[in-house]
Specification:
The protein has 373 residues and is of the alpha/beta class. The protein is 39% helix and 20% strand. Strands 3-2-1-4-8-6-9-5 form an eight-stranded mixed sheet. Helix 10 packs across helix 11 and helix 11 packs antiparallel against helix 12. It starts with a helix and ends with a strand. The relative contact order is 0.14.
């Protein structure tokens, strides 16, 4: 088929199964891993994240980098353009509306052809050997469906007024720093897009993948995550996360993470954690700082009481919200004649991009996104 004819048929979506397989094989040629980074605004943090990827000892010509834009108001394309030389396979995908990080990551899974998908957060910094260590671990352990990196905090530590995810010994399954085999992600159906907020969607995915195989911990693979100052607004926003903790408890019998049982009455166990256990633990930590940091310790005590109030406000969701049935979010992909999973790009107008023209695509599910090829 002439090249111009193939391009025309791709844009219009008139393409047969054999051609779909060829397209994905060409896209995945010499690509061993795809890094998927969901982002909404935060262009300054995204730039630092990409800079750390550009310094990898791994050949980034063999690594696809997909920045999945969750309908940012900021124009992120100039940020990506600065890294074209060091990250030659960088692309930008854009959703037409805010759908949350779970949907953005599924967007990336559908768009890649590499056998390994590495999830990072847009505010993380990768150690220079991160990609190499994770791929080597997966190569040595074919029974693993995933490899989890070590997450270290950057910034204020051991302070009750600062917060950030950490993973010192594995078993947290944060999508801030974890690599999965793409075929396992497809079988698991991707991340649950009913988890709109960045809370528990990563553990929900891990619980399904653990049924297929192990998720190993690779301590030499390190990602650095910043800590941030917590405020009253922080705790008020966090109250919405308890609904997702409840869903995990009902589905899998765990309290936020595997290894923590939700007991025989999961809704009541989550309610107790929201109103008493977590605020109480925070209060004890705050009291420990009163002697050496009296002002910060006193403020942290106030925050602990406010967190309990937020837990009370979350009780209707915890006790009465229904648990949604799980949906296969990657089932829109089809199989080509060779049995390979495929997806078909279509074009959209440049006007849908913030800040000016860009190349646009729509996935086979109808989600709109733009792409920098």
């Amino acid at each position: 088929m002439p090249l111009n004819e193939k391009r025309t048929r791709t844009v219009t979506g008139v393409i047969n199964d054999e051609e779909k397989g060829v397209m994905r094989q060409e896209a995945a040629s010499n690509v061993h891993v795809a890094v998927v980074i969901p982002v909404r605004n935060r262009s300054d943090l995204l730039e630092r994240c990409l800079a750390s990827l550009a310094d990898q000892v791994f050949s980034m010509a063999e690594c696809e980098v997909l920045v999945c834009d969750d309908c940012s108001q900021e124009n992120l394309r100039p940020i990506l353009n600065r890294f074209r030389e060091k990250l030659p396979r960088i692309r930008l995908l854009r959703q037409d509306s805010w759908k949350g990080p779970a949907a953005a990551r599924n967007f990336g899974i559908r768009a890649v052809g590499a056998p390994i998908v590495l999830f990072l957060d847009s505010d993380t910094l990768s150690d220079h050997a991160l990609v190499r260590h994770l791929l080597a671990a997966l190569d040595r352990n074919p029974e693993w469906v995933g490899a989890e990196a070590k997450i270290e905090s950057v910034g204020r530590k051991e302070n009750p007024l600062w917060d950030g995810p950490v993973c010192p010994n594995g078993g947290r399954y944060h999508t801030a720093a974890i690599a999965y085999r793409r075929d396992a992600l497809i079988r698991a159906g991707g991340l649950d897009e009913t988890f709109k907020m960045p809370a528990c969607e990563d553990v929900d995915l891990a619980m399904r993948l653990l049924k297929e195989g192990s998720i190993g911990f690779v301590p030499e693979a390190i990602v650095y995550h910043p800590t941030r100052r917590v405020t009253l607004k922080t705790f008020w926003n966090w109250r919405r996360y308890w609904k997702y903790v409840m869903i995990l408890a009902k589905r899998y019998g765990v309290l936020a993470f595997p290894g923590k049982s939700a007991g025989s009455f999961p809704r009541l166990r989550v309610a107790l954690a929201a109103v008493l256990t977590l605020p109480g633990g925070r209060l004890l930590t705050a009291c420990g700082h009163l002697k050496h940091q009296p002002w910060e310790g006193l403020l942290a005590c106030f925050y602990a009481f406010f967190e309990a109030i937020c837990g009370v406000c979350a009780l209707p969701d915890i006790l009465f919200e229904s648990v949604p049935p799980y949906k296969d979010y990657l089932s829109s992909e089809t199989k080509d004649s060779g049995g390979n999973l495929t997806s078909v790009p279509h074009s959209i107008p440049d006007s849908q991009w913030p800040g000016g023209a860009g190349t646009g695509n729509i996935s086979s599910t109808g989600d709109k996104h733009g792409e920098i090829s």
